[in-house]
Amino acid sequence: MKRRDFLKTAGTASLAAPLALAGTTSASTAGNRSQGGLTITWLGSATMLLTCGGLTLLTDPCFGEGDKAFKMGDPNEMFDLAKGPNIKFHRRLTPFQGIDLDTVDHVLVSHMHEDHFDQEAEARLAKDIRMIAPKHDLETLTQKGFSNHLPLDWGEKTTITKGDVIVEITAIRADHSENPEIAAILGKGNGYWLTCSRGDWSYSVYWGGDTFGTQPVVAALKPFGSPDLFIPHLGGVGTTGPLGKISMNADDTVAFANSLKPKKILPLHHSTYELYLEPIHHLAAALEPAPFGLDLVSEGTPVTYI
Length: 306
Fold this sequence. Notes:
Elements: E1 38-42, E2 48-52, E3 55-59, E4 70-73, E5 87-90, E6 106-108, H1 119-124, E7 130-134, H2 138-143, E8 149-152, E9 157-162, E10 165-174, H3 180-186, E11 189-198, E12 201-207, H4 215-221, E13 229-231, H5 250-260, E14 264-265, H6 281-287, E15 293-294, E16 302-305
Parallel strand pairs: 3-6, 6-7, 7-8, 12-13, 13-14, 14-15
Antiparallel strand pairs: 1-2, 1-16, 2-3, 4-5, 9-10, 10-11, 11-12
């Protein structure tokens, strides 16, 4: 069975609108400096707009809404591993905030599961838009008609510039499960270390993608030091199915953060879809005694880091 076939379809900040979560708090890092500033707008699931100066990156594009937001296997249901999961539509619980695709310079993809690159995004994105994606997904992107892609394998990097903005992007190993056999079934994906610079301003971001803080992932991150911002994927997906847990829960995230020692944490991959099993307030509770700033924001709320 090919990679990802288990899930494939057939064929703290300026908090304008904080999440209404009992018992949670949000740290604030609003502001701007004349030289720089990175604004992140979470659009649900793992979809973000990262804007620095005139440069904008879009991550893991998912634009579908309602009861049929995207179609994919269901890792939360029990199924025969020899046959694969039930392919079905998945429900989005929140409205999509919308996006002006004309503002997007590059798309940054962690992996090609449909809860990270959905059918609506596939239809709406220009086929010649610049895609930075795992090397393992080059064939899939080509089959979908996308022609302008830069594949990155673990440890490979690229630099993009626009005006006085420089963003260095390094692909980091991502382990979709703590079980190596399950991780191999789900396919090879990327996390990314981004260093955004403008003048004498610089800011580092580690966006983990669908990974756990396994020993190989932590070892790959060690040369980079501690990031200014850690963006983990949560949701505890798969805990009720035969694959087991294939996205982190709160305890996994705390353990990972303790090894990374970031200044801030901005969690994604929660609340948007019915697919996500663990509520995000579990993370706020688990981090309450920890020394990390936690930003919990509503979808569509811009957050500026300086």
